[in-house]
Write a structure and sequence with these properties.
This protein is an all-alpha fold and about 200 residues long. It has a domain of about 45 residues. The chain has 9 helices and no strands. The longest helix is centred in the last third of the chain and has 43 residues. The termini are far apart.
């Protein structure tokens, strides 16, 4: 009671709380303290600031438009939903039958092999020309082969030794060793009595 005697004016003042606290201050106090600590930790980090995803601003307009379109679709679905036309299921079977029975089989297209008579004659002429060319080339080839064989036979006749001819004549007892035949007679005799295979074997 001593301070009341020393300060009577102060003691006469009403005893009220000079500081006011907001409503539910202590209820949210822990959450706000945690948020303040979290922000302080972020500020102390070396890499400060916020990072933006790659191509964020280039695609921002498309993202906003797509989000608006999705919201509009959601509002339409919530309000209207999906509706079927009136009497849809009553007419469904009749519509299906009319569409399936009314379809016609596709017509088969016929392509003529010969469109005009000119094509017939042109193809026949080409066939004849090819056949004649083949026969001509075959005949020329056979003539060349015959000429080659004849040339080879003549060459072998010139390459035969006279002693071989005389020995063959002695075996057949047609001429004697002392006989002297001319070259033309020997050549005619060889061509008449020997084949090309015999001549090549005796060489």
């Amino acid at each position: 009671m001593e301070w009341e005697r020393e300060a009577p004016h102060l003691a006469s003042l009403p005893r009220t709380m000079p500081y006011s606290v907001p409503d539910k201050y202590f209820n949210d106090l822990q959450t706000r303290i945690n948020q303040s600590v979290f922000v302080a930790d972020l500020m102390q980090k070396e890499n400060q600031g916020f990072t933006v995803p790659q191509n964020y601003f280039e695609d921002l307009g498309k993202q906003i438009e797509s989000r608006i379109a999705i919201d509009q679709i959601n509002t339409l679905v919530k309000n209207d939903g999906f509706k079927t036309p009136a009497n849809y299921f009553d007419k469904l079977q009749a519509d299906i039958l009319s569409k399936t029975t009314a379809t016609k089989a596709p017509k088969t297209k016929v392509f003529r092999l010969w469109q005009t008579d000119l094509m017939k004659y042109a193809s026949a002429a080409c066939f004849i020309l090819l056949a004649a060319s083949g026969l001509y080339l075959n005949e020329q080839h056979s003539l060349k082969q015959i000429q080659k064989t004849e040339f080879a036979d003549e060459q072998m006749l010139y390459d035969i030794d006279e002693n071989v001819i005389f020995e063959h004549l002695e075996e057949n007892q047609t001429v004697t060793n002392n006989s002297s035949a001319s070259e033309t007679e020997m050549e005619n005799y060889i061509l008449d009595n020997f084949s090309s295979n015999d001549l090549s074997n005796n060489l």
